[in-house]
Specification:
heterodimer; A: alpha/beta; Rossmann fold; 6-stranded mixed β-sheet; 4-stranded antiparallel β-sheet; 8 helices; 27% strand; B: mainly alpha; two-stranded antiparallel sheet; 4 strands; 6% strand; elongated; binds adenosine-5'-triphosphate; binds magnesium ion
Chain lengths: 233, 391
């Protein structure tokens, strides 16, 4: 199980949003840190095949990004999670399951399981437009997990979650990462420092740190802040 | 249900849940009902001048009363041959004043056939003048010798003298409803379907769809199926409304009446009922084509208002801009852009599509053209959709 990212670049006019990133990701939780505008979302969108890289290639076990085989093992929570306001949470999950090609029976079971896992049981029959921000975010996490993806890409999944849900989420992800590739981005160091076995740090489109973070290296938060001292150019 | 069925089901749901779509459906249905009932809002007064030349009002009738009187008068003429005897009878009737125009149906037919208000004809003369007038119309359409020969052969199948059959419901639909129905349909589709792709991108759900296993071809196909089904159902429902009202007020009789009793200069040897069904059929094809058109624009322009404006704008444009027949191919192609082709004028447009020795009339060519264009649009849209990777 290997996600190969080879010299991936994204350029918008003269602006280079992602600059020649090469990486190989295996099982485990990979935490992507970086300030606003560092290129995290752009990088993740390319991994999900919804944004074409200007250069470089992405593949998973020999399958190119955006091919049907690749898409069938992918789960994605976008930073701006889009939903149909008039669908109920349950309908939304069933629709997403059909999109992901789950057999009908399995779709029903999986939706039910994830509704419970994300504590949306009471709200599952209500329209999504009546949900709070945190509930929507949990629904977004649920839909990403529907097809038990080998590659789970979560763009700021903890945004809007309360502390209790944040803790629950961490547990779920830690467990999930044992057998799958999880890539998750955040600004909040505490979200990943105990969960992510591998830390990736981006700055102005480039990868400036990668590798595990152990106690011996000191405080991750301190290190992170130091990288971005001096602020914007 | 397999995945595709579920995808189609949810596409329907997305479409019908939109407030804009619900309102548009309601408005279009109300307009169609209103178009069918507009006669109720009319009021007719009749006048005559007395010996001193003073104008005196002789009566007033509501639109409904007039319609029922006309219906009764027309029914009294059922099955009559329009021949010498009939023309003589009519002359005698019009020699004296009568508050009811009992021969209106035949009188207006004769007037249209001859192009003259009050000349006295024998039956033979009348049909002679009628044929000459059709030939003149062919000439003014700049038809080729071959086309004229084609139609003259067709016209041999039109039996003269004509036999009048009561067919007011079918005539009303043909004369008053077909164009309006087509236009309502195009507007409905423009409003409802121009968001079908653009909306996903506005809601940002396209991010989820495009990275899912079935998010490309199956989703495209599901959307296209829903759109085309919507176009088809739209045409169907609008016609059902027209049929229901017209049959209710005027009866169902007259399917087999010859087309010429309504559209006298038509060289088509068909019945009025067949003419209505042809218009209905073409409207269905228009529905499918315009829904594909609206969807492809929705995809290409990525903005529902823009897509809607293009669809409605193009329809408007064709009713404002007339290309003279001497620009043969251009004017011929232009006149196929919906919904001009649904006008009664189409039944005397003699231009033919000739290919490999086969001649096809406009009314036969329209469905073929619309179908082929729908397929082309389907294919163009699919290519664009499957490839879409935002930059
Ligand atoms: N469509 C676009 N056109 C032009 N520039 C873009 C586009 N999308 C992103 N960018 C630029 O690319 C850079 C990276 O943006 P990106 O959204 O990937 O950052 P991010 O790390 O996800 O930031 P945040 O933490 O705020 O989510 C930014 O400078 C942004 O302005
Ligand atoms: Mg981002």
């Amino acid at each position: 199980m290997e996600l190969k990212i080879d010299r991936v670049t994204k350029q918008y006019g003269s602006k280079i949003a992602v600059d020649r990133i090469s990486l190989t990701l295996g099982r485990g939780v990979h935490g992507l840190l970086g300030e606003n505008g560092a290129g995290k979302t752009t990088f993740m969108r390319m991994i999900c095949g919804i944004l074409a890289p200007t250069g470089g290639s992405i593949s998973f076990d020999g399958m190119e990004a955006a091919t049907e085989g690749y898409r069938s093992v992918l789960g994605y929570l976008p930073q701006d999670f889009g939903y149909y306001p008039d669908f109920t949470g349950k309908d939304f999950l069933l629709y997403m399951a059909a999109l992901k090609g789950l057999p009908k029976r399995r779709a029903g079971e999986k939706a039910k399981e994830l509704i419970e896992m994300t504590a949306l049981k009471e709200a599952a029959g209500n329209k999504i437009k009546t949900y709070s921000g945190g509930m929507r975010q949990r629904l977004g996490i649920a839909q990403a997990l529907l097809n038990d993806p080998d590659i789970l890409v979560l763009d700021e999944p903890t945004a809007g979650l309360d502390p209790k849900e944040r803790v629950r989420f961490r547990e779920v992800i830690q467990e999930y990462g044992k057998k799958h590739i999880v890539l998750l981005s955040t600004h909040i160091v505490s979200d990943i420092e105990h969960v992510a076995g591998n830390i990736l740090m981006m700055k102005r489109g480039q990868l400036i740190y990668r590798g595990p973070w152990g106690e011996e290296k000191g405080d991750l938060e301190q290190f992170y802040l130091k990288q971005f001292e001096g602020g914007e150019e | 249900m397999n995945h595709f069925g579920i995808l189609v089901k949810y596409e329907w749901k997305k479409l019908l849940q939109k407030k804009l779509v619900r309102i548009a459906i309601l408005v279009v249905i109300l307009l169609q009902v209103f178009m069918n009932l507009s006669f109720l809002m009319q009021y007719y007064t009749s006048y005559r001048s007395d010996e001193d030349g003073n104008v005196i009002q002789t009566g007033g009738r509501s639109g409904y009363e007039k319609l029922m009187d006309d219906k009764e008068d027309a029914k009294a003429l059922e099955g009559r041959k329009v021949d010498d005897a009939m023309l003589e009878e009519m002359r005698q009737f019009y020699a004296e004043y009568s508050p009811r125009d009992k021969y209106a149906e035949i009188h207006s037919m004769v007037r249209a056939m001859s192009g003259e208000e009050s000349r006295e004809f024998t039956g033979e003369e009348l049909y002679g003048v009628w044929k000459d007038n059709i030939k003149t119309s062919f000439k003014s359409q700049l038809l080729s010798e071959k086309e004229i020969a084609y139609w003259e052969k067709k016209m041999e199948n039109i039996e003269t003298p004509f036999t009048y059959h009561y067919a007011m419901a079918w005539e009303t639909i043909l004369n008053n409803q077909c164009v309006g129905t087509g236009m309502l349909l195009v507007m409905l589709l423009a409003v409802c379907l121009s968001g079908i792709f653009a909306e996903e991108s506005r809601l940002k759900t396209s991010n989820l769809i495009l990275c899912a296993k079935n998010g490309k071809n199956p989703v495209y196909l599901a959307k296209a199926v829903v759109g085309m089904l919507f176009g088809f159902l739209g045409a169907f429902v609008l016609y059902v409304i027209s049929f229901a009202f017209q049959f209710y007020f005027l009866g169902t009789e007259g399917f087999h009446a010859i087309l010429q009793q309504d559209i006298v200069y038509s060289p088509y040897p068909i019945t009025i009922g067949q003419a209505v069904l042809i218009m209905f059929g073409i409207t269905v094809f228009i529905g499918v084509l315009e829904s594909m058109f609206a969807m492809v624009l929705s995809l290409g322009l990525n903005n529902n208002l823009a897509a809607m404006s293009v669809v409605v704008g193009l329809m408007m444009l064709t009713s404002f801009i007339y290309i003279p027949k001497r620009f043969r191919i251009l004017s011929w192609l232009w006149h196929f852009i919906p919904t001009g082709i649904l006008g009664t004028g189409e039944f005397y447009d003699g231009r033919l599509f000739q290919f490999l020795g086969i001649s096809i009339t406009n009314l036969g060519f329209a469905p073929i053209l619309y179908f082929v264009l729908s397929l082309v649009l389907f294919w163009v849209g699919r290519r664009k959709y499957v490839k879409v990777q935002k930059s």
